[in-house]
Design goal:
Chain lengths: 404, 404
């Protein structure tokens, strides 16, 4: 049994878990809306899965290759991680989805008994592989490890994810640049919808794993609508908004969410892929997003950047050499509460890998706590005050408000 | 309070701690002999320090740069590590002993509240630095980080270790190759004894930190005697045997211990530097050694080699790709009890650093448990049976008995 926070326990006391959702034989993922924030429309909710119940809005740490980099499953448990993400493409290439199926599935393989979401592999095919060529059938490419030719289709993405046994599976979509022509995006969106339909048909374990569709359409309102309507017609258990956080401005992202979200059903979870900047998390939750993920906290952690209530800290900066204050008094991870900035500075300067663990766990804990506080603010109907408070401290619109 | 094993608790019940040793205002390190094994002379004992009491024979994990590589202090606590070692040379170069003194000392800096031993820095000066030149005064050299000229003398080594605040400090000695001429070794031994005398004079905190002398003399019986007698005359709180485990055979090492140990006082701890091979640990304990250290378990762990009761396992070997048995059923560290060999194989193949943590903690736990079992065998007067059992299983004189 994973640890849950005091506030999540409070929520369970306030809104008892529904027995029929816990034991629904047909639906592996069920969303329950608990409360809508009065001033913004942000959703406090929960997601029932075969591996436990989680409260939303929530952030998912990323374990790309069946391991959150330099972080143990016990660390994740201790910082109240509830749901993690792993990457289909990476696991397909190495060690292989067949091997993980033989191991008893991804949960058992990596010893994480909470829910897992896997992406479709599409994003990595576009960003990591070579010579990729898309057709109606799927994508031909060469993998980034040994250059072998591989073929990914909606059906293959489902077969792999069925082998992995993740709680939430993502359909294969085409990850396109934000600024493409209307015609290009329209064709792509229509194909992505056809791929979603094929994925649904190919799905072998619909009672154990939930398939999410991905709404695309770049910055075109009509195409986002086209995409959402096509996917909603398929009656999938959840929907993601894709093609954001790929270089567009934050205003642009908010604008797209503003006109996209109303097309999505209120009784299903909504997932915004690849976002971890505190301001974006809050602004997207305000627009009705429930789930987030990003490699950002662990990636910048490995480089010595810490996320704190007072903004970012680059621990390798010389000014921390003899700073004997705690890493971050306000964040409750073990490292932040036990080690000084001077010690963490030393570990990074001396290339001691334990420093990467401290910083990665810290950043994850910062974000998980931010989400917990956000849930509380939604419950208390004071999300806008919370937003103001977080952003003023973290440095929104201040010189250190660099977007990650 | 650090965790201790059931057997160490049993020893405390059998041989209650001596109040006067716990609170001796003058002696920071006191050795208490509890039992001598009937058939071998191996010593079951304990060492009282200002940071706790430990049972011997024992093995010290090495935290070179104020961190046991990729291992947290909590991991160390969980596997019953009792005493750790850190490297004076490395801490002197980076972050600097002054900074650690300002941090409140090494224990506080690295958040390890158990006893710490620091070496003199001499070994790294010989092995890592450039242009080193020895004189009666000390050693001139250039450091391995930025090439700065530095000077290490018996006094400097003491100043640094006084700043670090370690429980056991080592005198500066000359680390010489095993096969040098008698005359060269004799001169070196005599200088090392003079350096020990200078170190004792330079020591600023004799009531808090214990200075150990280092017996040198390569393979020459007369010179080992000369060295031991000179150092014992200084009445230091403990003694190390140096200049072994540097390429000589195991038989040669045993031979040197055989004729060296009788010269050392029975009421002081004896420390054999740089040894971690199971057969050597047992054979040296049989000859009266109480303390060991080595980077070996963490170093080979980082490369994917595991120490187990059945011998070494190289987890990157292809045969572990689909081996879904536990990493090591017989060793009680978290990783060994939760993950399969296939998973650890995958982590190493995919360059996931969490694998290094699993393997390093595992190897340390293997050795700490070996030492605990050795203490039990000494208590039970069946150390030779224990030796036979360990070595037959681990692979002594068998094809996989490669010496580390």
């Amino acid at each position: 049994m994973r640890q849950i926070s005091e506030f999540d326990q409070f929520l369970i006391d306030q809104y008892p878990l529904k027995e029929e959702y816990l034991h629904d034989p047909k639906r592996p993922v069920i969303y329950e809306l608990l409360h809508v924030e009065k001033h913004t429309g942000a959703r406090l909710g929960r997601i029932y899965t075969r591996h436990g119940v989680v409260h939303t809005p929530m952030f998912m740490p990323v374990g790309t290759q069946a391991s959150v980099k330099n972080v143990s499953p016990r660390d994740l448990d201790e910082i109240n991680a509830q749901f993690i993400l792993s990457n289909t493409y990476h696991l397909w290439v190495r060690p292989g989805d067949d091997l993980i199926a033989k191991a008893g599935g991804l949960h058992k393989f990596m010893q994480w008994d909470g829910p897992i979401l896997t992406d479709s592999g599409g994003f990595q095919v576009w960003s990591l592989s070579n010579n990729n060529k898309i057709s109606e059938e799927g994508v031909d490419f060469r993998n980034h490890v040994d250059g072998s030719p591989m073929f990914l289709s909606p059906e293959v993405a489902m077969r792999i994810q069925n082998n992995l046994g993740s709680d939430v599976m993502m359909q294969l979509d085409e990850a396109i640049p934000y600024f493409e022509s209307y015609d290009y995006v329209k064709n792509s969106v229509e194909r992505t919808t056809r791929w979603a339909a094929r994925a649904k048909i190919a799905h072998q374990r619909p009672e154990e794993q939930a398939l999410f569709g991905i709404v695309q359409g770049a910055g075109f309102k009509a195409l986002r609508q086209l995409s959402a309507e096509g996917l909603v017609d398929l009656d999938l258990p959840g929907y993601a908004v894709g093609g954001l956080s790929v270089g567009e401005t934050k205003e642009e992202m908010n604008r797209v969410l503003d006109f996209t979200m109303p097309w999505l059903p209120k009784d299903k979870p909504r997932y915004l892929m690849g976002v971890a900047a505190p301001d974006s998390l809050i602004d997207s939750a305000i627009r009705g997003i429930d789930m987030f993920d990003s490699v950002l906290p662990t990636r910048i952690g490995r480089n010595g950047t810490l996320m704190t209530k007072q903004g970012r800290i680059v621990i390798t900066n010389g000014k921390y050499k003899d700073d004997f204050s705690l890493i971050d008094e306000e964040t409750e991870d073990f490292g932040s509460q036990h080690f000084t900035k001077a010690y963490l500075h030393h570990l990074f300067k001396a290339n001691e890998l334990y420093g990467q663990n401290i910083a990665s766990v810290h950043n994850l804990r910062y974000l998980l706590k931010l989400m917990e506080d956000m849930r509380r603010a939604i419950y208390d109907d004071n999300l806008l005050d919370f937003r103001q408070d977080v952003l003023e401290n973290y440095g929104y619109n201040k010189p250190n408000a660099r977007l990650f």
